[in-house]
Design a protein that fits this description.
Layout (H helix, E strand, L loop, with lengths): L16 H10 L6 H6 L4 H6 L5 H10 L4 H20 L15 H16 L7
Length: 125
């Protein structure tokens, strides 16, 4: 497997399954990488965790064979990313899929719309 750079936290909700795996390695939960890949856990799925019911959370934990403490760590790291996005602490970069000629435009628009991109994320205490 090639060594890729960890994904940009600002764009965690558009992470691919591979991006999620790299992020799991970065937060010391790499042992779950394979099972997350097998279950197709991408950034959109991670974002939706905050809206899960208790039953759905327990089903997710069982399906991924997660320890409860590791699930708490996962949620804390997701929250840390969301809060950093809201505070504007994340660097904005052109996404891999955008043409280079649009990078200046993308960064300018992303900075202007940073809060509108993240406000929809549910932040629990």
């Amino acid at each position: 497997m090639s060594k890729r750079r960890p994904p940009e936290p600002l764009d965690f909700f558009i992470w691919t399954v591979e991006d999620v795996g790299l992020w799991l390695e970065e937060i010391n939960l790499g042992g779950y990488r394979q099972v997350f890949e097998e279950n197709g856990v991408n950034g959109e799925y991670l974002e939706s965790l905050s809206t899960f019911t208790t039953e759905q959370i327990l089903r997710f934990i069982r399906r991924c064979h997660m320890k409860w403490g590791d699930f708490i760590t996962l949620c804390k790291e997701l929250r840390r990313i969301k809060v950093a996005c809201l505070k504007g602490e994340q660097e904005v970069r052109r996404p891999w899929w955008a043409p280079a000629c649009l990078s200046v435009v993308f960064v300018r628009v992303a900075k202007r719309n940073r809060q509108s991109r993240v406000v929809s994320l549910k932040l629990e205490p």
